[in-house]
Amino acid sequence: MQRKVTALPRSIAGIALGGAMLVRFLTPQIGDAQTKSAQSENSSASQRSVAAMSPYIDVHTHLDESDVGGSMQSAIDSMLAENLAKIVFMPSPFTLADANRFDVERLLPAAKKYPGKIALLGGGGTLNPMITEAARTGDVGPDVQKKFRERAEAVLAAGAVGFGEMAAEHFPSSTPYEYAPPDHPLFLLLADIAAERDVPVSIHMEAVPKDMDLPAPLKSPPNPPRLHANIAAFERLLSHNPRAKIVWAHLAWDNTGYRTPELMRWLLQAHPNLFMEIKLDPVDTGLTSPLTNGASGKIKPDWLKLFTDFQDRFFIGSDQHYPQGSGPQRWQAVVLLFNEFPAALRQKIGTENAIQIYHLK
Ligand SMILES: [Zn+2]
Question: In 3-state terms, what secondary structure has residue 280?
Answer without folding.
Answer: coil
